[in-house]
Design a protein that fits this description.
The chain has 290 residues and is α/β, with parallel strands linked by helices. Helices cover 28% and strands 15% of the residues. Bound molecules: S-adenosyl-L-homocysteine (SAH).
């Protein structure tokens, strides 16, 4: 597992310019730390928000690594052109297959060829919708390579040739893949061990059990005449858990019938109620089977 990891100790300064650029360099190279490689025309957009708060602290501590590969130096000619007009006409520009291929090849060294261990993803509105299950899959891999599009996107032949998986952030169009990549990375990195302070806090949140989260409250106990639901102040953990489950189910049913239907479909079918053989159990002669 470790033999095909890049060993960048002590040679960061000597790295040729077309190699991935590590965004936080003087951090410990923790063995097996999760890695992200991002191909983009806007490397200066990274780490962006990922460099702040919990994901930023984890990045600085070496719990994960982020490298950008600037697409521009792989461009054609003196001006390093990366795009051209769409075949067949129409508005905008398309990223060239040959240019992006050179960047992909530069991003490959040190990454396993097995896509289950290291997915290769193009952020695209046509992709499979990103969700919590995908974030978990990515967090369980060794790392990911992300391709951020710009303009009208990339030449289809590149996607076909490299069998690149397309992932969408949602049914809307961004101007580029960078914000989508950062959202995907944020959702993934927070699942890595040690990144969130409280390790159990991802178990109960929205989507983890196929439900949206129950409402949260904190002090003051009364605000603008509104009280915190008394059960939450009761100290009765069993009742609190029951209330939260009921609220999570209610909110999911009301807001996301699609999630609710999926949740209901995966729930083990309720076993038909067994009639207790009254006489025998009551008398303790023949215990009821579980
Ligand atoms: N012409 C394309 C849109 C290109 S938008 C189309 O109609 O499908 C430019 C780039 O922004 C894309 O290449 C992609 O990388 C990124 N992008 C836009 N919307 C996105 C979304 N919903 N999810 C992920 N990436 C997106």
């Amino acid at each position: 597992m470790s033999e095909d990891k890049p060993r960048s100790h002590g040679r960061l300064a000597a790295r040729p310019s077309l190699r991935p650029r590590e965004l936080v360099t003087d951090t410990p190279e923790l063995q097996g730390a999760w890695r992200a490689r991002v191909i983009t025309l806007l490397p200066e957009a990274f780490p962006g928000v990922l460099g702040l708060s919990l994901t930023g602290k984890a990045l600085a501590e070496g719990l994960w690594h982020l490298e950008t590969i600037d697409l521009r130096p792989f461009g054609e000619g003196r001006h390093r052109n990366v795009d051209d007009t769409p075949a067949g006409g129409g508005a905008g520009m398309v990223l060239r297959a040959d240019v992006v291929a050179r960047a992909l090849d530069a991003a490959a060294p040190g990454t396993p060829a097995d896509r289950a261990r290291w997915p290769l993803i193009y952020l695209s509105p046509r992709g499979r919708p990103f969700d919590q299950a995908t974030a978990r899959q990515l967090a369980a891999a060794e790392g990911v390579t992300l391709l951020c599009g710009r303009f009208e996107g990339v030449d289809q032949r590149l996607l076909d040739h490299y069998a690149i998986e397309e992932v969408s952030l949602g049914d809307f169009v961004l101007t580029g893949g960078e914000l989508a990549a950062q959202a995907l990375l944020d959702a993934t990195v927070r699942l890595l061990p040690g990144v969130l302070g409280n390790a159990t806090s991802t178990d109960e949140e929205s989507f983890s059990a196929g439900l949206l989260e129950y409402p949260q409250y904190t002090r003051p106990q009364v605000w603008e005449g509104r009280e915190i639901p008394p059960v939450l102040m009761s100290g009765h953990h069993g009742e609190i858990a029951k209330w939260r489950k009921a609220e999570a189910e209610r909110i999911t049913r009301e807001r996301r019938p699609d999630l609710w239907a999926a949740h209901e479909a995966t729930r083990p079918a309720k076993a038909p109620k067994k009639r207790k053989p009254k006489a025998s159990t009551d008398e303790g002669i023949e215990p009821a089977k579980a």
